[in-house]
Amino acid sequence: MLDTLLLIALFIQSLAALGCMYRVIKGPSVSDRVVALDSMGISLISITAMLSVLLRSQSFMDIILLIGILAFIGTIAYSKFIERGVVIDRNRRGK
Amino acid sequence: MSWLHLIVLAPFLATVFIPVIHKAFPKLHIGWAVLPLPIALLISLLSQIGKVSSHVSVEASMPWIPSYGIYFDVYLDGLSMLFALLITGIGTLVVLYSIYYLDKHKERLQAFYVYLLLFMGAMLGVVLSDNLMLLYMFWETTSLASFLLIAYWTQREKSRYGAQKSMLITVFGGMAMFAGFILLYVMGGTFSIRGLVEQAPHIAGDPLFIPALVLVLLGAFTKSAQFPFHIWLPDAMEAPTPVSAYLHSATMVKAGLYLVARMTPIFAGQAEWFWLVAGFGLFTLLWGSFSAVKQTDLKSILAFSTVSQLGLIMSLLGVGSLAVLYDAADERLFYAAVLAAVFHLFNHATFKGALFMVAGIVDHETGTRDIRKLGGLMSLMPITFTIAVVGGLSMAGLPPFNGFLSKEMFFTGMLKVLEADVFALETWGILFPIIAVVASVFTFVYSLMLVMRTFLGKLQPEKLEKKPHEAPIGMLIPPIVLASLVLLVGFYPNLIAHSLLEPAVSAILPNLLAPGDHFETHISFWHGWTAELFMTMGVVAVGLLLVLTLRRWVSLYDHLPQRLTLNRLYDGMLLGLQRGSSKGTEAYMSGSLRTYLIYIFLFFILVIGGSLAFIQPTLQASGYAPLAAYEWLLGLILAGAAAAIVLVSSRMSAILAAGAVGYMVSLYFVILRAPDLALTQLVVETVSVALFLLCFYHLPKLRRDMNRVRFQSVNFLIAIGVGAIITILTLAVQGVRPFDSISDYFIANAHDEAGGDNVVNVILVDFRGFDTMLEILVLGIAAIGIYALIKLRLGGDYREHQ
């Protein structure tokens, strides 16, 4: 029963990710795409979580954390790039 | 190591000492230090002549590469003896001549004598070798030494051209001969020539026999300047005259004849052998004598005359090969042709050597070799004139010189062909004596022309660079010796007939003799009113007529088509090859990486796709796991993201799509239960997306306006093809698994053997830690490389980008 529910939830979550993908491809501006990618990352987190329940495994907990961190870092990096044109500043203290 | 080995190796050893002696005694003409060596070799060979002429061959063996059947086997029989005596004897005379010919202050003498000794050793090696590989090695060494000697005056354009030409042609033939030798080895199972002769009847039926025959003959024809490979010889006349006399008349150009004679016991009796050897020989004889008449340079006349005489000997060897078809009881013995061949071979070496030395003397004392400028030297250079007359008339085939005898025997051999009834000779045999007579007429003409236009007529002192006078005595001794040999052999031919020629003939035709038997080799000066004598008289009569009217008809040569000469063909071929290959290279080496990638992928499609089509693998669906609905969706996302990379218009979006692909791949790792892979994939993907962003920031302004990827149908087709083939390949491989995986071992032993529960990590650092170490090394190199690329700015005016 739980497995069936999980499969249904996975299907719905995949649909959500597909929607995000549509935005990534289509999205008129780069910012739209970045946001879509960020939310796709969150979708991945939930898919991974559901999969680890489905697979009865605890090995994927690290991945959930990592995706969270990376999605954050990636989005920040992208935002900074869109804002200032660089990801890492040359002069961190000055100005 | 026996004395026979030493004879071959001594010249090579001596080359080591020449520069040392040259340094130690700078005032000595280095030729004097070289001279004792060929004399010693000659004497040591002469001491064996009794043995050889009583048919006892001297042989010695030494292992060289025994595992491949390559031995340093040397073997001295009649044929080798004849050649070895020519090489050492004329070598002695040429060294003596060169001492007076080459100036010790102006020339690089040590180089000259090193090359000359290198050649002498190699040539002795060629004629004394019993092992085919050894023979080939020495053969190529003679080509190399000849190359070095022709280009001795390296500052001259023509010398370099002649050297390159001779090198290309002789090495081409040498390679063909090498292939022929290997075929012989494949058939006979041995590299030993005598071993192959024993197997000759067994070899003859082999399908490889004819290719081997043609290839070996190609080597012999190129070396012995047979038509159409004779073109290198006239250009080789740019060499110093001692070299021309030694290499290009007496020894090296006869290596091909030696090879044909040596291989006769293996190949004789075949129609191909007869027609190729005799046919090419006769045509070369005619062509060489015909071309010699129009030359105006003394050495060019002699070069074409050499070509023609080599053709004569070659044709005699061809006719002589018929001997094996008729048994000894038969009246019509063809071995007379072989006897004529070896006799003329000896005679030609003597008179042609003398004539070359005469040409050198004339050049040395007048400053020119052009017969249009020469004339009237008879009274100024009486000794040289006498030698020239002896040599010239011997070459023309007049009594009482030795050329007369061998020419008579040549006619005998050619007339014998009329009696042959094999190989369609009933029809074509009549051509042999006709060509022989016509060529002899031309030979007579150029021989007389050579002597008359140089020494008779009027002196033209204003055209000469120096005031002509007789040569120094040292320069005259070698040609005098050769001219006296011409006379001596002319008057007493049987001096060498029994001791030298008979063993040589029996070495060429070993299977015709019963043990203890001898060939009848008595050469008689006068043999009655025979057809040969009338032919000679006809030749002399027509020849004299032509010589007297020379000025009227020699201009006919100018009307011959100049564009159709073989030299033009050679130059055109060389130029065409260069241009063609550079055009070919330019056509496909475009310098664009795109083009090269197209080649690589096309090759991939052709080879892998072709072999897939050839194998036709079965793609069974049964072995695959079922897919859940969400997995389909995730696959769709992955495909969509991948498509987006290609289709989106901006590069930024393409990077985002690439990141999406990377993340989806990591999700697949989760689905396929590979947590470590998923972790790594996520981090690496994030880092590489960040790196892409870094790169894009630095793209030049000009290019910033981002275009959609241009559609190109070729690229599209290739991409589709590669993708399809990879897919098919993966599916095909997946279905077939002939062996069990070894992963069970890792799973079972990870805990007990390595003390870890994470099997992936245990494999990485324990079971297969070596790979990991090298991967770490790769990362280290990449990091250092990036650091170096960014920091290191050598040369050029690079301003750091701010």
Automatic annotation (TrEMBL), chain A:
Keywords, in A-Z order: Antiport, Cell membrane, Ion transport, Membrane, Transmembrane, Transmembrane helix, Transport
Record membrane topology: Multi-pass membrane protein
GO MF annotations, alphabetized: sodium:proton antiporter activity
Gene Ontology cellular-component terms listed: plasma membrane
Heme as UniProt keyword: no
Residues spanning the membrane: 6-25, 37-57, 63-82
Localisation: Cell membrane
Location, primary (coarse class): membrane
Domain of life: Bacteria
Stated family: Belongs to the CPA3 antiporters (TC 2.A.63) subunit F family.
Name under which the protein is recorded: Na(+)/H(+) antiporter subunit F
Organism of provenance: Xylanibacillus composti
From TrEMBL, chain B:
The entry's keywords: Antiport, Cell membrane, Hydrogen ion transport, Ion transport, Membrane, Sodium, Sodium transport, Transmembrane, Transmembrane helix, Transport
Coiled coil regions, renumbered to chain: none
Stretches that traverse the bilayer: 6-25, 32-50, 70-100, 112-128, 134-154, 166-188, 208-233, 245-261, 273-290, 302-326, 332-362, 374-398, 430-452, 473-492, 533-554, 596-615, 627-647, 654-672, 678-699, 711-733, 772-790
UniProt entry tagged with the keyword ATP-binding: no
Annotated NADH:quinone oxidoreductase/Mrp antiporter transmembrane domain residues: 129-417
GO CC terms in record: plasma membrane
Residue ranges of every copy of the MrpA C-terminal/MbhE domain listed in the record: 715-791
GO molecular function: antiporter activity
Residue stretches making up the NADH-Ubiquinone oxidoreductase (complex I) chain 5 N-terminal domain: 65-113
UniProt-listed GO biological process terms: proton transmembrane transport; sodium ion transport
Entry's family note: Belongs to the CPA3 antiporters (TC 2.A.63) subunit A family.
UniProt xrefs under NCBIfam families: 2a6301s01 (TIGR00940), PRK12645.1 (NF009285)
Protein name: Na(+)/H(+) antiporter subunit A
Upper lineage: Bacteria, Bacillati, Bacillota, Bacilli, Bacillales
Chain's gene name: mrpA
